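Example 3.2
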Amino acid sequence: PAPAPEAGGFTAALNAALQASAGELLALLPGHARLSADALLEIAERFAADTALELVYTDEDRMDEAGRRRDPVFKPEWSPAFALSGLFPGQLAVLRRTRAVALGGFAGSLDQVPWYDLLLRLGDSLAPAQVAHVPLVCYHADAGVPAELALAAPAYEQARRALAAAAARRGWAAAPFLPEAGHHRRLCFHQLRWSGDVLAQLPVTIVIPTRDRLHLLQECIELLEETVDWRHVRLVIVDDHSRDADAVRYLGRIQQRPDLRCTVVRLADPHAPFNYSRLVNAALPHLDTPLVLHLNNDVNALAPGWLEAMAGWFTQADVGVVGAKLVFPDRTLNHTGIVIGPHGGLADTPFARIEAAKAPVAWHEAAREVSAVTGACLLTRTSLYRQLGGFDEQDFGVAYNDVDYCLRVRSAGQRVLYTPQAKLMHWGSATRGVTFDESEHIAWLDRYPGYRDPYFSPHWRLDGARLRCCSDVSARVGRAGRLRLLLLTHNLNLEGAPLFLLEYATWMARDAGFTLEVLAAQDGPLRSAYEALGARLTVIPLGPLFAARDAAAFDRELAALGERIDWSGVDLVVGNTLLSFWGILLARAAGRPSLFYIHESTSVFRCFEGSLNLALHPRVHAALGGATRTLFLCKATRAYHADDNLRGNFRTVPSWIRLDGIEHFRTRHSKADMRRKHGFRDDEVIVANIGTVCERKGQ
């Protein structure tokens, strides 16, 4: 329970309001806060759908008096370690009023940080399943109110006391402190410094794989000697059959040192190809400590306390892996946790090679849960490592072994953490260089298809190493219901673009349950396929429209076309190819959203040369720039029309392949049958070009 409130003051007023309130849900907002129109509905829906929820939080940004928004904060899913900092879950976090009352309300001595303290007390017994994240910007801070806080403000000390009390309640041997970044940026957030005695409770074996490159190994070990307590640390060096005489002599001598407990291990086959997973797994029989640290030989410790900063988290039973903050020799960021998915489903390290001062504090200065950390400096429980069979030697001998291990740890119900309090320098692939094996990429995608990283918001995308706002994420789609689509096509022939639209329409009708109306400029054999989908199909000759001699005549013909459409039955207009530009103009005039699919890798002038008066070409450009979304199947096609992307409405949406159809065909036709059908011998090598290959399409 919280300390009793003082006789008067801010927290006394808060507690009085808490007791007097009849509402079921509770939030504490600053006076300058603004909420989105549906913020309360989004939150209430989450609580109504799950009676076990204790906490719901949303994304946020900053808004000025003119309504201009900036600095979005797209948050991860629930992260208990991150919540300790005070940087998360943010301003709009809501809990049940009865729970706040049961916790004792607001602490009288913490009037500057009452909500932070209350959330910490809630977090003492909060399970991840009791928290929900609304991944929508529902809260707008006043952009005119500084985010910085003067270092003399009492909130810093009160926040430190609140976190110290939380650590004491949870039995953690850790003390809060204001990080250097907090001082420099005047941000009130705290981190934990674990007791220096933690290694006596949780000794560590450091495993270092190496081969030749003696100067790297020597520097790595010399800096370990300056920063770790060897009384509680063992060393296992896995030598991948070094050939350099000096390296071999060094490895022989280091095992004889009385001040180190060091074992050198070698694989049985000196000619085996490089397999990092096999190297680190070779240390397994020699592990007799509760924790094991994988450390690359090109990683240098920078200051004492880094190993304690990692090991301290393992006093929490549900922590399975902890990774460190790594920097390059120029002190730019190297590793601050790994995200999975935004780069074609693969793994990435945001802000690599970026100066720390130019990266968000929350990303690299606060301990937090992540999906994975790099194996260059990875601490894990020895028992868990054995239980999971170590790193995967079969599929991930060189790449993805660390990320795969972390995901298996998470699947086992354990947390993976990143901590900036362990800061080391990483030269980066100095021993073996950078390798690429496409089979490991394929194995990764096969094992984790469509993995959704819970700690990387879908509203972010990666632009190189930087995060950019992704503006084409679907939201609230369930509220749209079954849409009524108006599809536009220049003909119904068995051609590429009309067939594309038919596949599109098939999914919309059969899978999404949408109703379809189709306007075609020319009839053709695809009519029956559309009618089988239940689509209402109308052929509308466009000759008069395209024959217009000037803008006035064009507008009259366009208005006449618009009068033939019952707009009350249209939710979305989908134009297919540049030739359907007229429908996008009608949609805009009728106040309906539109999607404009462009297939033509040519300019507007070349496409309409001879078929549309040159004076009317600006109408096509207006459709490209005015559609809700103008969509291209490849970047090369999009490049032709880049000058019309004035509103940022262009998107590249790669086309699709029906994998299930391919698999169905493959199961019904043997390779031998297909060779006989097409006249190939069994021993002939066949090179197939799939689809059209055209330079102007960038293929």
